[in-house]
Amino acid sequence: MRLIHAAGDTLIFADEEIQYSKKGKTTEGPTIPIGAGHKESGMIAQSEGKVGTTATNTAKVIRTMMRDWQVFQFHDTSSNAHIKQSKYVDDSYFLKANAGNLAPFLYQMREHKKKYYQRIVETIRLCAPFFDDFVLIPRDKNVILNWKEKNSDMLFGPHQLSDGTLRMMAIVTLLLQPMLPSMVIIDEPELGLHPYAITVLAGLLKSASERSQLLISTQS
What is the pLDDT of residues 89-126, one digit of tens each? Predict the structure, then answer.
């Protein structure tokens, strides 16, 4: 796609094309133009066109793939952020875009995917040496992101974590979970992170890219 500036301080499509090539094929699929001058993608309309045509079939395949993409942004660490609240313990089928269900997601992983949970904890310790483990205890079918320090029996809550540490916990969990979406899109993952944590993050992204397609937006 190519976007250009238009009246009313908006963007429109100067042109939009779709192409799909099957994995393992040496030749690429045909490039199909789907219009110009529109404000929103023509993908949906094209995928609902005449059944059996190359353009419609290509659009259907691409649209199906895009439905499995997941976009993540962990910027909100305010006092009212979902990541700091008590959440329903079974709300753990997938990690949400704002990591609002991080506590139940980690709880279920600890109970059923212990190896992955342990890797997450160990990686967080690299970035936050004071961190020992999460303390995830369901109460009235809800669980909150409590944690403890090394060499201490004191219990801390998510509001006692720095913004950068909280975001790092979410990013580490996202990238080290057992099943990544087919494409993961992360907006500014380095926000608020210590320089060493960014180095760890770079390694995690490289490793995760072997299991999923990653698209990272960053100013770093």
Answer: 999 999 999 999 999 999 999 999 999 999 999 999 99
CA nearest neighbour of 185 among 209, 164, 203, 169: 209
Provide the 8-state DSSP code for 83: G
- Residue ranges of domains in the chain, CATH in brackets: 2-67 (no CATH), 70-217 (3.40.50.300)
The DSSP line for 107-148 is: HHHHHH-HHHHHHHHHHHHHH-TTEEEEE---BTTEE--EEE
Dist CA 211 CA 116 (whole Å): 15
Evaluate whether 97 touches 71 at the Cβ level (below 8 Å): yes
pLDDT, one tens digit per residue, over 159-202 is 999 999 999 999 999 999 999 988 999 999 998 888 999 999 99
The whole-angstrom separation of Cα 149 and Cα 138 is 20
* 45 within 8 A of 21, measured Cβ to Cβ: no
